[in-house]
Amino acid sequence: MNRRRVLAIGAAMLALGTSSASMMSSAFAQDAPVEITMLTMGNKPTNGRLEAMLEKLNERLIAQANAKLNLFYIEWADWQTQYNVQLLSGDDNVDLVATATDWLYAWENAEKGAFLPLSEDMLKTHAPKTWAQVDAAGHWDLTKLADGNIYFMPEDNYTQYTNHGFFYRGDWAKEAGFENGEITKFEDFTKYFEWVKANKPDAYPWDVAGANEAALTGYMQGHTDFQTLQGVSAGNYAPFQTKASDPYTITSWYMEGDALIEAAKLAKQWNDIGVWREDALNYDGDTREEFYAGLTGAEQHHTQTFVTQIVHNMNAKQPGSDPKFYYWGEENGNFFKDIFTHGAMAVSTYSRNPEKALEVYDLIRNDKENYMLFNYGIEGEDYIIREDGVLDRPEGFDSSTMSLDTNYWWGRMDEFEPARTTDAPNKAELIDELNATAKDYPYSTLIINKSAIEPTLAAMAGVLSEYIPQLQYGKFEDPAAAVAEMREKLAAVGYEDARASIQADIDAWATARGLK
Amino acid sequence: MAHEDSPRRRKSLLRKVVDSRILLLMCAPAIVFFVVFNYAPLPGIWIAFTNFNYRDGIFGSPFVGFKNFEFLFKSGQLWMLTRNTILYNLAFIILGNILQIAIAIMLNEIRLKFFRKISQGVMFLPFFISAVLVGVIAFNLLNYDTGALNALIKQTGGDPIKIYSTAGLWPIIIIMVHLWQSTGYGSIVYFAAIMGIDKGLYEAAAIDGASAWQRIRHVTLPSLKPTFIILVLFSLGGIMHGNFGLFWNLVGNNAALFQTTDIIETSVYRMVLSQNNFTTSTAVGLYQSLFGFALVMIANGIVRRINKDYALF
User: Fold this and answer.
1) Same domain, residue pair A321 and A187
2) Which of A146, A151, A340, B136 is most deeply buried (CB count within 10 A of its CB)?
């Protein structure tokens, strides 16, 4: 153990000349700034803007906390594996770790000991503003494991919706016979897709690449009151649900009811129409760009993407296309607000300067000037603020070559976020509409004991990854028979044991809160 | 006695090392490679028997016995994976070697040196094409909507074939692509072996009135037998290891084809990639290694029984 640690430090010193230099000098001089490394997600930018911004930001951080920040990127290729392997490696060069409970394995890694437990005293002393804000909102409970310790700081003060749905073209929908070009029901897309197929020979109605299950989950969400449990996944699938009408009984929409069969039949109908490529599963093109180029009638992602990218780009690249968004559960209000731990920041167990790391995070999250630097770069070079207060880019700015890409999704603050020229003009209306109907996710504090059921989940993932993509693309002659076969196999690999185990977790959770 | 012996023996070992220091130095990279990548990670097998977590590490994590292996049997995939892996490799080994020998003999019969070099070069070329590119080329040839093959069929009035959802076609496709990539390379070894055959044998056969076909049948083929056996034995050692890059890039996540295309390695890769599941994947890896080890021992045993000189050990 000791030898490994020494080796790791040695390798680290070799790898990061600067850090070893600062370590050495800090041993001699008290006032050398401490270097803090933040792990973030994304491809490391190479256009020099990041370095220019960090230089300015670090001047401020040195003055404010005698610390310097640099970034470590987990790149998108194979990011799930890379992220977990990086945390597993025990690298003591990383201090702050970006995480999330619903998509970045925060609970798993907290349980496995990758994150330092953060005591109240530590937070109050070294991240006082973050502490006060999260405490006032009452959100610290959302970050605790069963041991009662806080493991990360949530991005709980930032409004965004990441509920999924279809982006489609209002101009085409209008011609297809939809009033105002608005589609509000999942199965109405059949009519839209048929029209695109018949009238737009260059475009696929919905060009989609690789494994996907939107045609199934989108339908089920809008036709049942199933509520998907987050944070317990079998591969790429979230197989456990409750029902709004029976919120403390664990079930699965893959196992119960007829909705999956109906959805699979609709998918088969779409496949027969030719909505997607026959070989969609092996296709890996960039369908977002195809949407911008008018080569697909629909594209599938979430609200945040729609209001920050799709509308702006479609208006620029397909003028008059009137981009619209239909979201799963629009017809019956069965969708959720984002949870507060969709983005969060943890401190690595192996950090040599956890207190300093907290101070740096607190300063980026709560000091407006630092915040703007870190998120948008240098004013006048990377962005400008128009007279009406809207954030714009300087003339000649090309987002594909000049963006900052700090990808700070781990502590954004509503009050610091400026309106942007790339925002959809109807962003506020859409958010208001969603706010009016979206439900609060009821199980944010439910922690499922996955170690007990991991082998079962892995086996279920094997079954699901075999059947779901084929059901999604309508590849079975008889969808009902395929669903029955899949259910049989899921049962055989231990679905019921896993369900019972989660049921016990939710029973204990609900009893402790007096809900049941 | 032993007291007297040991200094002398130590000395002689030292002497041996000193005497063959150049040879040892030349071996060093290979030795380092195997120690670092094959022996040093061996203790990690322990992960397969634990409920692994970061904090406690490999040996601190709770021991769970064979629980991780249960999954392999429960999923019912184990038999399919083992079957696919072995059948593909048998096809690769048998068809591959036959083709390689045929090509080597044909090359040997080409008298025009220039043409022989060109043929060799052209057949060698596919070996250098990355599997990623092979996957892309295959998709562009075979896909339903825009693929070259189906375009041709449509142009000539036929019905396009849904290749990417017809599992039955894939063993043929994969084997063909594999042979296309590896035959040119493999034939070199046989060609070299043919070059090494005593020319006197051919002259004697010719004097006895043997035709070209008879010379191949009675001189070349028997002389290639030891090479053939050694190469087959070596490939048997890897029979549990598929050609991952090729399978993954041709098939990817297309579950419609798994029944005939999924091999142990693609399955493990998918599991680790989408599951973050170190324990079960280590268990699969261990199963693969043990099964492969048993196969090598059995194959070697059979060969030794037939002809001791041809056995590896």
Assistant:
1) yes
2) A151
- Give the tens place of pLDDT for each residue, A492-506: 888 999 999 999 999
Q: Do B277 and A279 touch (CB under 8 A)?
A: no
Banded model confidence at residue A21, pLDDT cuts 50, 70, 90: very low
Q: Contact, A100 vs A343, CB < 8 A?
A: yes
Q: Do A108 and A219 reside in the same domain of the chain? A: no
Q: What is the pLDDT of residue A76?
A: 83
**Which CATH number characterizes residue A173's domain?**
3.40.190.10
Find out whether A364 and A371 touch, Cβ atoms under 8 Å. Answer: yes
Nearest to B103 by CA among B39, B194, B40: B194
Write down the ipTM of this complex: 0.75
Quick check: A204 and A277 in contact, CB under 8 A? yes
Q: Which of A19-23, A374-378, B48-52, B120-124 has the highest mean pLDDT?
A: A374-378
Q: Which string of DSSP letters, residue by residue, matches A195-229? A: HHHHH-TTSBTT---SS--HHHHHHHHHHS-EEEP
Q: Do A177 and A274 fall into the same domain? A: yes
Q: Could you tell me if A72 and A209 lie in one domain?
A: no
Res. B106 pLDDT band, cuts 50 70 90: very high
Whether A88 is in a domain gets the answer yes
> A116 with A348: CB under 8 angstroms?
yes
Does B68 contact A at CB distance below 8 Å? yes
Among A268, A295, A327, give the residue marking a domain's end: A327
Is A236's CB within 8 Å of B274's CB?
yes
Q: CB A458 to CB B144 under 8 A?
A: no
Question: Chains A, B: CB contacts under 8 A, how many?
Answer: 122
Express each pLDDT in A73-115 by its tens digit: 998 877 877 898 898 888 889 999 999 988 888 988 898 889 9
Q: What percent of chain A has pLDDT over 70?
A: 94
DSSP A211: S
Phi, psi of A57, deg, nearest 5: -60, -40
Tell me which chain B residue has its CA closest to the CA of residue A278: B144
Mean pLDDT to the nearest integer, A26-30:
47
Chain position carrying tokens 């670090």: A58
pLDDT beyond 80 at B94: yes
Are A194 and A311 within one domain? Answer: yes
Integer angstrom CA distances of residue A100 from A105, A375, A435 = 6, 19, 22
In A293-336, where does DSSP find H-type helix?
303-305, 311-317
Do A127 and A108 have their domain in common?
Answer: yes
Strand partners, A39: A72, A97
Number of domains in chain A: 2
Residues A188 and A312 reside in one and the same domain: yes
Cα Rg of chain A, angstroms: 24
Domain, as residue range, for A208 = 164-228+252-327
Q: What value, to the nearest 5°, has the Cα angle with vertex A507 and ends A502 and A513?
A: 130
How does DSSP classify residue A97?
Answer: E
Residues A80 and A178 in one domain: no
A477 occurs within a structural domain:
no
CB atoms within 10 A of CB A67: 19
Q: How many angstroms separate the CA of residue A346 from the nearest CA in chain B? A: 15
Picking from A2, A278, A460, A477 by the largest number of B CB atoms within 10 A of its own CB, the best residue to mutate is A278
Nearest to B143 among A80, A105, A282 (CB): A282
Lookup: tokens for A361:
């995070």
Q: How many CB atoms lie within 10 A of CB A240?
A: 29
Given an 8 Å threshold on Cβ–Cβ distance, is B139 in contact with A279?
yes
Closest chain A CA to residue B166: A475
CA B251 to chain centroid, in Å, comes to 18
| Domains of chain B with CATH codes | 75-275 (1.10.3720.10)
Give the tens place of pLDDT for each residue, A337-389.
999 999 999 999 999 999 999 999 999 999 999 999 999 999 999 999 999 88
Spatial separation of the C-alpha atoms in residues A436 and A360, rounded to whole Å = 36
